[in-house]
User: Fold these one by one.
Assistant:
Number 1:
Amino acid sequence: MKVGSMTVPLQHMPLAEALEYLKAMGVEAVEVGSGGFPGNAHCKPKELLADRQKLKEFAKSFENTGVELNALSCHGNPIHPNKDIGAKAHEEFADTCRLAGELGVKKVVTFSGCAGDCPDSKYPNWVTCPWPEDFLHILDYQWNECLLPYWEKAGELARERGVKVAFEMHPGFQVYNTASMLRLRKELGDTFGANFDPSHLIWQGNDMVASIRELKGAIYHFHAKDTKVDPINAARKGVLDVVPYGEELERSWIFRAVGYGNGQDFWKSVISALRMTGYDDIISIEHEDSLMSVEEGLGKAVAMVREVIISQKPAQMWWA
């Protein structure tokens, strides 16, 4: 495994400077935003695809610093009921896949997207319960008329470029937990896998080790981000919380830097479960801790990941 990080928190720096900054911290590989919600301050696919010299200079940035370009991130909603929003997200995803193919990057991290409740919808509709039965009709429409047809076609584009698609299992989208991830994978095959981000599963009540084991062979990427569930607020109002993220004291849970939501033993168990199920790739730090500056949050997260990561292949044991 390699200590990794997204470059998005450092988008105020030029790419080369951000890479040097992360390298000095101990980061070995990075995930670069190429559109959608992460933004594309460090990577503009259209420009790079249109200009071979710019593409060469972009690739050289990683060679010069010795930091690996491990993944491109393009988090959008290509099945948004607003056709303009959906089309923009698709265009960014398609350009990202093309760029990944040019660079030899093997995976693109994204969202599955969330559809509306019918063809005339204006906004996405995330269903969280099976009753009244209207919700099951919505789910049937979303999966069979929107999600699966879109990704069946988009998967062809990814395969043409030699790219795997890693869905961040994120509430608010059709793929948000292990069951929905495995359902899509069963329908559409192993072009698709999970970006396993504990921060989104912790507050849903998932056990991380059980979830990692259930997804054995289907985890293509890993985001190192923590969540702290507030026992007082969660006890009085549950974890389905629409209080703005900035109002930390009133929320049932908040995103934290690695180690500030759950301790070292938790993260050791997560990393060990990843190793046992065959994952041997980047542990990509995502900073979204609203209580810490970017510099402090990244620094503390890197220190924790370096403590718990398993970077060497196990030795051959005498009983093997």
Number 2:
Amino acid sequence: MKRFFTLLVAALLISGSSWAYNREIVAIHSKAMDKDILVTVFLPDNYHEAKNLPTVYLLHGYSGCNKDWDEMGQAGPLADKHNVILVLPDGGYDSWYWDSPINPKHKYETFVAGEVVSYIDSHYKTIADRSGRAIMGLSMGGHGALYLAFRHQDVFGAAGSTSGGVDIRPFPKNWGMSKWIGTIDENPENWEKYTVTNMVDLLKPNHLKIIIDCGTEDFFYKVNCQLHDKLLAAKIPHDFIARPGAHNWPYWRNSVKFQVLFFSNFFEAEAAKKAAAEKK
């Protein structure tokens, strides 16, 4: 009996330390697509005592959903560790987070960068401006995070991509992209317009904080290196990390820890700037 009690106490302590954050799953109605979409929200354990908190949006990859960064990515504890709100929207099976130029019912850019952000800011205690918002994602979501952040720098102050498909043009027959922007043969202009690597000219030095990483064994490694080179040529400061790894969850579970730390440092710097400005 004594041994059973000891094991029970140990189990409760482990459970408490692992699951201190709070998980909520909400259905956000997309007016743009006329449907309800599930979004997972992680709140740090001290959420109700805290003042307004920064928010990190985590985008899943191809064939994923709002559960991925929770169940496979194990990102929840980062809400407690960095005292941030984590938001995991369902971006559809193969949306690439675009507003489709050929299908008016496909508007995941509007949903994530507009409708989700508006809902989260109106229902939770957030820092409701770009100084308190970051967005990152893996694979399709890595492309999506940079795509949305580059196009909505008034919404997001920091962005990250891990193993991101940051140049779609070498993969014209993959991952359902042609459903939303047309085939590369019939709509070559869309394949130029809707890829992250061609959006560097939207950036101003030191405006958007950027972190990019990719495993050296990843099939997206080459396009990530090319984006890195393009950012260097444009003199856009950014963190770029290349380390051994493939296109899989062991790599992403490690990556998200570094990216959320990067965002946490950004949030702290922005808070310090505001505090200094208020003292003047």
Number 3:
Amino acid sequence: MNDLTLIAASDARLPTDPFIGRHLIDGAWCDSIDGGSFDRHSPSHGILVSRSAQGTKADTDAAIASARAAFDSGVWSRISGKARATALLKVADLIEANVERIAILETLESGKPISQSRAEVSGAADLWRYAASLARTMHGDSHNTLGADILGVVIKEPIGVVSIITPWNFPFWILSQKLPFALAAGCTCVVKPSELTPSTTVMMGELLIEAGLPAGVVNIVLGHGQPVGARMATHDAVDMVTFTGSTAVGKHITAAASDTLKKVALELGGKNPQVIFPDADIDQAADAVTFGVYFNAGECCNSSSRIIVHRDVADALVEKVVALSRKVTFGDPLNPATQVGAIISADHQDKIDTYVKDAVAAGAEVCLGGAELNVPGLEGKFYQPTVVRNVTPDMPIAYEEVFGPVLSVLTFETMDEAIAMANNASYGLSAGVWSQNIDTCLEFSRRVQAGTVWTNTWMDGFPEMTFGGVKQSGQGREIGSYGLDEFLEVKSLVMRIGQTRAPWVRNG
């Protein structure tokens, strides 16, 4: 399409050799026991980006055994909060010192724009610093009203060994939503990144070693869900699994973990609505909708992939979103001016396109896009900015997660109708409401089924504000103080003061 804003291949220097990734087990880098490896080619540039060790069941068992031994030894779990916080703060400093090299590799493996990768990596340091503050301020409760001779104390202890399984769309950021909070709690960890984006997790391992974390506290196993992820979810020595990814895989992990009744925390899919009422600031709403659907090429669990807009302002809003969409820069992820990069894989691109074509066949109208995008000088897969209107709630594009740069437009007339449409999905991750009336915003926020609700904004996030979903968007919470609590067990200590307990068995 000639009316889109494209950025052709830049003159950025591409690496001539792939990044070599190995497992981190008990403080040492090692190849797979069987010598296996796998390659990752850039979805934007087609070059070989990385070659990684292919994890086996034996590699995974070794990593779990290392984490178990480190936890039981107390080398991390029983040191002071101050000591743990000091190490986490060192990691944060090291992240900031290595932003550029980490960001370049993340861009080449994921296809996301380099400016976004830089922001994610540098922003991750703040998550580590906030987790460090929690390590020092974690506390329980005391009860001194149980009687003159009884003192009750409720303490919080680390849950133990945690399996961390991360996705391909935000590999460094999502790892930083989990790992520093598990470490702040005193847990030890085994990490498996996605096989599509393994390398920045390996880089994180390098920083952890440089920061002085004891051997075995964090272990990394590269590879696929079978056998690595499956073993991490079922092993008896693992106390908890935290996973971010698709709802389908999350259900499998829950089922696999049930045999050992280990704790499971899940951050899964979303079909997140923004509801625009007629008194909304249409210009600001249109800009936020445009950002929400194209950020990370729509490959984001928080993508605002559907809007529910009042009929009185629907035409005006769609017109503005289409105009803004034409100005969004799509193209070479290594160009700092690019806002939207490549789709993660050809298979995923086909899935996105199928949703659009099926919607059209069912009566929807494509206002913009709806096809593959050819970027001059690049071999990768790109998809046009796409706006689909006349969508009805029964169309899959209205309630299933597309995970691409595709916006579905539905309309409403009453609050009840808007709420019904917003809740008409199996997901409940996030939602947004646009109105100048605080009563409207509060009523919507209380009635919508979502873990996060944004009012007159979209996707503002802070380490202090916890994140997670309801329904099939997951269970448990990440970041914030609630994110720390996920990695803690609560223990009650009931202590009698002095020899005041009357004997149960009486003599004589």
Number 4:
Amino acid sequence: MKIVSYNVNGIRAALKKGFIEWLQSVNPDVVCLQETKAQEDQLDLSVFEDAGYAYNYWFSAQKKGYSGVAILSKLKPDNVVLGTGIETMDFEGRNIRADFGDISVMSMYLPSGTNLDRLDFKLKYMAEIQEYLNNLRKERPNLIVLGDYNICHEAIDIHDPVRNKNVSGFLPVEREWIGNLIASGFIDSFRFFNKEPHNYTWWSYRANSRNNNKGWRLDYAMVSEPLRERLQRSVILSEAKHSDHCPILVEVS
């Protein structure tokens, strides 16, 4: 199973930049999207169906033009769950899950902590989603949680760790949370295969950051430990330029 995750920073904008053609060239089985910024009724779903993704599921924020996640699939899932059932996070459309046989795939868009209010919201979300995932794995042990985590785990994951040490996305409390998530039984699949620096998934639109590769690795495919032996590949697809993020890809047998 080849799975792609992509924070598209607005699916309608990405479609105008050749997203469908790119998607067909990569040809994943399942696609997890974040920051779709669209309600389902604002989209022409036939565009995705014609590209081979007959099964597409959308979970939007109550606020129009904000947040939102989706799963597109060539395979028919056995089960789809919109949200987590936790009201404090679900109104922003941040989680959607599809089950395929013994594997569960979640698209997750973790909040950013752009100011103190949002940082508090982010920290609350982090605590609640950790508990939710702990419980979910009792029922669905083969779990892959893909998406924009809005956190860099280690200094290797950010272009300037010294100057960003007090910036949300690289705060000690956020980094510790990612470490605890991994320790709870997840594998950072990209680092499972690649220990090299300068691998990022998001770049500011300012100061020519992308061309200078001054980026942050904010997007992860976290794979639960029972799938360790089934991990085939995990890469960053930095050539795709439909967003300020780039997609990631993970393959499991």
